[in-house]
Write a structure and sequence with these properties.
The structure is a homodimer of 291-residue chains.
Chain A lengths: L1 H7 L9 H5 L3 E4 L2 E9 L4 E2 L2 E2 L1 H15 L4 E9 L6 E12 L4 E10 L5 E12 L8 E3 L27 H5 E5 L16 E8 L7 H7 L6 H4 L2 E2 L4 E8 L8 E6 L2 E3 L2 E9 L5 E10 L3 E2 L1
Antiparallel strand pairs in A: 1-2, 2-6, 3-4, 5-8, 5-13, 6-7, 7-8, 10-11, 11-14, 12-18, 13-17, 14-16, 15-16, 16-17
Helix pairs in contact in A: 3-5
Organism (chains A, B): Streptomyces tirandamycinicus
Pfam family, one (chains A, B): 4HBT_3C
Protein name (chains A, B): TesB-like acyl-CoA thioesterase 3
Chain lengths: 291, 291
């Protein structure tokens, strides 16, 4: 019965999915290149905050339209003020266009009550063509050791591994390695590691834009360090290294140095073909509260 | 004899050294905030290219003057066109000022023959006050295992561990772990690791600005991967986590994933007190030539 219902639901695809609809940007005026209207969806919020990776995907989409190259290679984002669901405008600038790489800047603004624009996030990004890269890989990096998907834990597997009432939880298919969810039952490992499987809940496969969401979508490493509360991102830089193969992704996030009230969080994303498809690092403010 | 000559040379200090003089920026017009003239010194070149970390320190100094906070916490730089020794102008923008953090943007331009400005590098940076941070440290990161300074190798110790005729070599006191200089004698380890001791040759101690130089000053990991030639930086993001203690620094740089003609290079910088003072990651184009 359940299976037959599932069979009737067409799997979402790249270009036709909730993620694609919710990251849509519309050129405001054909005569003014680089200015895009967008609507921040309430579907990608954690408590009341719009997820930083979703915002990055929106900015990434606008830049992919504005620049002559379509794939983000490296995106550096500085977060300025908290975003809220609702209308936004993305203003892009093409800084340099080259044969293989082009560099642009984009800012996402929302509106104050008097209509003035308030900047939420600014990014510098360099784009290229992932499909034009040579196939050679020489890597010493190894995928994270994560138990099989069926042996990992999601939001429905007991005491809220992903805490809070978060709309984004319904849109993500995250199953965490049980070794990294001790914090959900009051027993954080203290190592600063969270890892697991990642997909979009509607089955849409990953692409470079959704990888910008993926790098900031797991519960924060601060939870595994025994800290609770908000871990606001100051800056997040993501390298997209390869177009991901279809299928679920494996993601690990790690913090090695919590000091002076700040921490770095490194993410690695691996695809089903065993390729390291994205690497990111963010600087975040550490939560003040003990778990 | 040699010792007595050395004793007569006053050690350079923070604020009074070649590095400080060569990163000086001058407000162009008291009525126009945020625009600084600078002179790119030929003293910090590798072959003919101006070192990317030196450029970053120049931009960092201008932003430290323009923003209400003086210490770089996170600096994201996208490199656009190669710089050359000579005049430059740095144009900064204050994006957001907060109580503990402020964010700015800066671009370094040089001049074409017809006087038009050509952008070399653009950065987004968030600044704060390192001395205002709480002292708590919870780190799992360990300093790199490097032999004693006297057992490490510098440019004068045989077949040019730092190849080429590079003015910057005279200004740096770099001694590399012998285990990571096999490439200098045609035997790279293939691991993608280079590590060693770092100081400024005139004895000036490290500060947050000189750390921006330090993260991009060692020979590239590509050499240890058996590749020779230029490794142009596409993007480099640096986190300054702590004001460094006086004394030599330990630096390790590592590449885990060379793929599709690009590689990431991670740097860690540790001070004499055993603190992790800086972390950086860059995306660079891999050299095309085999060593």
């Amino acid at each position: 019965m359940y299976g037959s219902v599932m069979a009737q639901v067409a799997q979402a695809t790249i270009g036709n999915s909730e993620f694609d609809r919710d990251t849509a940007v519309a050129l405001r005026d054909p005569g003014v290149p680089g200015v895009y209207d967008a609507e921040l969806s309430a579907g990608w919020t954690i408590i009341t905050a719009v997820n930083g990776g979703y915002l990055l995907a929106l900015l990434g989409r606008a830049l992919g339209d504005a620049l002559p190259h379509s794939d983000p290679f490296t995106v550096s984002a500085h977060y300025l003020t908290p975003s809220a669901p609702g209308p936004a405008v993305i203003r892009t600038e093409t800084i340099r266009t080259g044969r293989t790489l082009s560099t642009g800047q984009a800012s996402l603004f929302q509106y104050a009550e008097d209509g003035t624009e308030v900047e939420r996030i600014r990014v510098l990004a360099t784009y290229g063509d992932l499909d034009a890269l040579p196939g050679e890989v020489r890597t010493t990096a190894l995928p994270p050791a994560i138990p099989a998907y069926r042996d990992c834990l999601g939001p429905s597997d007991g005491p809220a591994p992903i805490p809070g009432s978060s709309a984004i939880t319904e849109r993500l298919n995250i199953k965490l390695d049980p070794a990294t969810v001790g914090w959900a039952v009051g027993a954080p490992s203290g190592k600063g590691e969270v890892r697991g499987w990642f997909g979009l809940a509607d089955g849409r496969d990953a692409d470079p834009l959704s990888l910008l969401l993926t790098v900031d979508a797991l519960p924060p490493t601060a939870f595994d360090l025994g800290l609770t509360g908000w871990t606001p991102t100051v800056e997040l830089t993501t390298h997209i290294r390869c177009r991901p193969a279809p299928g679920l992704l494996r993601v690990s996030i790690t913090t090695r140095n919590l000091a002076g009230g700040f921490l770095e969080e490194d993410a690695e994303v691996w695809d089903s073909a065993g390729r390291l498809v994205a690497q990111s690092r963010q600087l975040a403010k550490a939560p003040l509260a003990r778990g």
